[in-house]
Every structure is written in C-alpha cells, then in structure tokens.
Amino acid sequence: MARLSYLDAGRVALAEEMRRDPAVWAVGEDLGRGGVFGQYHGLAEEFGSERISDAPISEACILGAAVGAAMMGTRPVVEMRFSDFALCAVDELVNQAAKARYMFGGQSRVPVVVREPMGMWRSSAAQHSQSLEAWYAHIPGLVVVCPSTPADNKGLLKSAIRCDDPVVYMEHKSLWLLEGEVPDDPDFTVPLGRAREVREGSDVTIVSWSQQVHVAADAAAKLAEGGVSADVLDLRTLWPWDKAAVLASVRKTGRLIVTHEAVSVAGFGAEITATVAEKLHGELRAPVRRLGAPRIPVSYAPTLENEVRVTADRIAAVAHEMVQAGSDPSRAT
Amino acid sequence: MLSGLHHRANSAFEKRAGTGSAVGQGSGSNIDIDRLRRHHRLMWRIRAFEEQALRGLNEKVVLGAIHPSIGQEAVAAGVCANLARNDILLSTHRGHGHTLAKGADPLAMMRELLGREGGTCGGKGGSMHIADFSVGMLGANGVVAANIVIAAGAAHAIKLRRERRVVCCIFGDGAINRGPFLEGLNWAAVFRLPVLFVCEDNGFAATTRTAAMTGGDGPAARARAIGVPATEVDGNDVLTVESTMAGLLGAVRAGEGPRFLCARTYRLAGHTGADPAAYRPQAEVEARWKEDPIARLAAHLRLAGATEAELAADAEAAQAEMRRTYDEAVATPFPAAPQAFADVQDVGDPRAEAF
Is the dihedral angle over the CA atoms A78, A82, A83, A88 positive or is it negative? Predict the structure, then answer.
C-alpha cells in the first residue's frame, strides 16, 4: 500500500500498464508537459514523446485517430482535457468507436480509453463543469467508468486499459488531490461493473458514483447521528452497472435514494430507480427517490453554482422523510 | 513487411515505360496490354456489381440505401492497383468499387447489401458499412469525412509499430467542408504519417454542386494550405490515376509523410439508387457519358491491339459473374435473430445486462 492522490493513482496506473504492454500509448493536448492537471507528469520522460504524445487542439482527430490506431493493434488512451470538450468528438466516439465492432460484424475491436475529466470544480462555469455520464451509458458498445477514490482510480483505469471495448473514463476534477491507500501490486485491478460498499446499513440504500459518493457518505454519517442506518453503494461503473448489488441492498433496506451531480432529468438515477421499481415494487417501504441537479447550466458565481449541488444535508433530510413514512410496505405512496 | 506479399500491380507498373498520356498518343509499342486488360475487367466487374445492386433495389431485396459509383470506376481501379493486400484502405458510403478493387469477395459484399448470412459484416452493416479487414479494408463509412481521422490514426499506429505498409483514405469532395478534413490532414502532416488521401471529386456533395457550397480553390488547394503536397488528375483516366498514385505512394512509402490526390470524376448515376438526379441537365449527363472511364480505357486497349471480341468478353464475363453473385446472395438466408446481440461489447453484454 502507498498513500497516493487520486491524480497520482491514475498516473501510476497508466505507467504500469505502459510498462506491461508496449501497445499502450497516450495522446492528447499538452501531455508532453504532464497534462492540464498533471496527470501525465513525468511520463514523457520515461516513455518518450511517441508513447506520451502531444496533440493539436483537434478533439475529433484525437478520438478518431485513436479509433484507427486501435483497429490497427495499438491500445490508445486519449485525453480529452475536460469532458465538455469531448463533445467535439461525439461522432468519433458514438458513431465510430462504439459501433465499429458491431457494424463490421465483429471483424474489429476498438480498445480505446477516453479520459474525460468531469464535474464541478469551483467557478468553472457551464463549459468546464458538466457531468454527462448518462449520455454515454445510453450508447450500446461503450463502457462508462466514474471512479471516486484513489484506489479505484488506479484499479479501474488499469481494467479500462486492459478492456477490449471502448471505455469512457470519467475522473472527477474535484477529486484530484484526494488521498488514500492504493495497492502497490502492478497486477491490482478493480473489475468493471462491480459496486463498492462504502458503508453498511439497514434502513436506507444510497447509491451514487464519482464525487457525489463522498457527499453520500457524509449524509450517511449525519444520518447515523440521528439513528438512521444507511447502506451506501459506490456504483463505480455506470455501464455495466452492478444491478445485483443495488437490488440486494434495497431488498435489505426497502428504501432507495440515488444521488448524482448530473442533472436529475434523464440522469442515470432514472435508470436505477426505474429498475428497482420494476423489480422490487412490493418490497419497497417508500417511493424511490432521485436527487440530482436541477435542469440549469452550471454557473460561475458560487451562490448560483451552489444551486446545482445536492448537499449531504439534503440527502439526509430526504432519507429521514423516507424512514419516517413508516415501515409498512402498504403505506408507501 | 511488403516483401512476402502479393504485389502484382506494382511490379506490373514497373514494367511500363510510359505514362497514361503516352498511351493516348497512339503508339502501341510500349503498352502492357495485360495490365490494361486487368483494369478493364476490374472496372467492368465494379460496374456489373453495381448494376446488380441497383437491380436488387428494384426487386426490393436490397432494403437500405445504396450509393452507386457508376462513372467513377477508374479511381477505384487506379488507386487500388498500387496497394498491396496488407496496405490499408478506408472508403465512403460510395465504396463498392474501392472495396472490390482492394480484393474483397463480391459474393460476401452482395450478401451484405442484401443483409444476409455470410455478408462481409454478417448482414449488420449493409452497403454503407462494408468492411473486409482480411484484405485491409477498414470500412466504408456512413458519415462524410469521418474516415479521414480514422485513417490518420491507422497510419499513426503503423508508424508507432514501425511497420512498412501504408494507408489510403478515399473520400468525396463534400468531405472537404467538414472539420475532420482539416484535423485529419493536419494530424497526418505534423506526425509525418504514411497515409495517402484521395479526394474522389465527382462534383456533388449529396445532391448539391460542391462548388456552390465551397470557398476557395478546392480540395488540392486546401490540402496544400495544411502542408500536404497535392496533385490533381483526370480521375476518369485509369492509367493517369494509377501512375500518379504510384509516384505519390512512393513518397509515402519512403517516409516523406502524407500525400494528397484529387481525382476529378463524375457520378453518372444518382446520389442514391433512388435519386433520379433531376437537379442536373440531361445534356450534362449525356456529355459526361462520353467521358465514361470504361469506354476511355477500351479506346486505349483498341489502340494497343485488343479486339472487339476481347473487350466484349470482359464485359460479358463481369456481368455473368455478378448475375451469379446476385442469384447466390438472394438464395442465402437472413442471419438468425440472436445475432442481433452478438459483438456489441465484452463488458456488460446486452444479453446478460440490458434487461
């Protein structure tokens, strides 16, 4: 174990995978100087400018070239700088990377990892703050990963690089400096599609991912003080998502809150709550709840930006309401 | 990498003394008639394939759109004559000719057009997504210009892996107005990649004249502005296309970076099989039929001593082959429904996860 930041855990993961597999290379704007947040610091020195490659500000070509290079037997890791900028490469990701294997009848795989730093980062405003993970979960062919801890950022990035499917890998910008214990073992990976139990509890299930997991954990700590026991799950990957873990938890608690930083309308919380409602209708002690952002762009001014945040207090208040609604399934409305 | 490969076309080219224009001057002495016949047969096979595809549209067995390249066969034949089997080709929605010329099996292609088992893509792609990786054909593409950045990446991988093969990317003149044209050519230039871009300039972007929607001096001028040396040729003269391609590919294979060929041609059929192309005067189309690349090649062949019977035999053999191909494709079953769930992805397989 080593104590690493979330940012360094990702850097170590990439370095280990590049040492393990000469087909792995990374390309994106400013990578030679360590990347915009320093996620690639020192890697060009170790691996050279061909394998840690700078790129023009050409998001469509960065991603499109990665598709072609992946079809030709390499394993590109592409850096999109901000997930917002990856929207300049949606054709390359959605129409090309995600479809090529299927559309060509299985003749090709497209093992590309698309790193898209996501989420709110104080006063970054509408074009540098978005959480668009649900868009990608909607696209057949893509894997969607949203790590929340340093250990997961190492283990999941390594799994993403080893995966033969195109993976949208969304690191949260406000987590870069978060520190935690990270296994040293270069064979340490975290499987795609397996949720992490953040906290065990029996009264209410709180499902989240990315930075919002930490808000959910804070909410659970507050709830514990008030005598409510929350089972907190970090989904870690949105596609595939760990349906079994969520269903098992809700079977135990009878109550579900899904909270995410993304806009609530058509967010991935809708998928999870709908699935639980379909499968566990008779076992629910309260209606399922989604807690996401209102459908407004993210603002610059802190007072406005805060309006889109779902706080720990809000989550705790909703959980209290649900518990107080009673334990008899027939009283659920 | 190239040494052990089938490379008939290049060696045939090396035997030639002159260029396409020398052939046109009427001296038959230095013409490699076998090579011209190979072009003639291939161009007829492409045309006959598309005639059968159009028949399939009429007979309602080709269910999706097809984009015929009738009139553009010299580009396919002249370009692909210079490519080895393990060289890489990327094509467009109008890609039947390129794909056949790269060596794909016409029966697998026709089955794909009909959405049948044994199609190049198992019936999942249809005409606009034909790919045959076994002959280095990395796919037609339904999105204009999208193949340019993928081609740049394929060439990038070749360079990273220190391989000696090259990439050829064919797109239409409409593609030069999309961003990936700028991004892909610039990428190839700054990384000095082994890729040859071929703009198959048929004058139309879908059903609009490209010139009416394009600023500046056209495809070659744009390529030069990005730093990619560009050459313009008569794309209806297969010999000129072939010889020009050979020179450009020589530079690409020598590691000199990307090159650009603009081959001017004309789409004699509609944008799709269902397009009567009423947006252009009949007289224009009739005049262009006089520039039919197959007829022009036949004229060269006559000068070289080919008989009318030989020329007719090439056409008839191609037509008979493609009629058989069509009949066999029509007799092939559709893929079994569970195939809809195959090859989506490894992680989160939809059969296990999506319901």
Answer: negative
What ipTM did this prediction achieve?
0.95
Q: What is the pLDDT along chain A (333 residues), one digit of tens a residue?
A: 999 999 999 999 999 999 999 999 999 999 999 999 999 999 999 999 999 999 999 999 999 999 999 999 999 999 999 999 999 999 999 999 999 999 999 999 999 999 999 999 999 999 999 999 999 999 999 999 999 999 999 999 999 999 999 999 999 999 999 999 999 999 999 999 999 999 999 999 999 999 999 999 999 999 999 999 999 999 999 999 999 999 999 999 999 999 999 999 999 999 999 999 999 999 999 999 999 999 999 999 999 999 999 999 999 999 999 999 865 555 444
> For residues A270 and B109, what is the distance between their CA atoms, to the nearest angstrom?
42
In this structure, is residue B23 part of a structural domain? no
Residue B235: domain span: 33-326
CATH number of the domain residue B47 falls in? 3.40.50.970
Instruction: Tell me if B347 and A105 make a contact (CB, 8 A cut-off).
Output: no
Instruction: Note whether B158 contacts A: Cβ–Cβ < 8 A.
Output: yes
Mutation test of the interface with chain B: which of A27, A31, A49, A58, choosing the one with the most B Cβ atoms within 10 A?
A: A58
The answer to whether B351 contacts chain A (CB < 8 Å) is no
- pTM, two decimals, is 0.94
Flag if B149 and A65 touch (Cβ within 8 Å): yes
- Number of structural domains (chain B) is 1
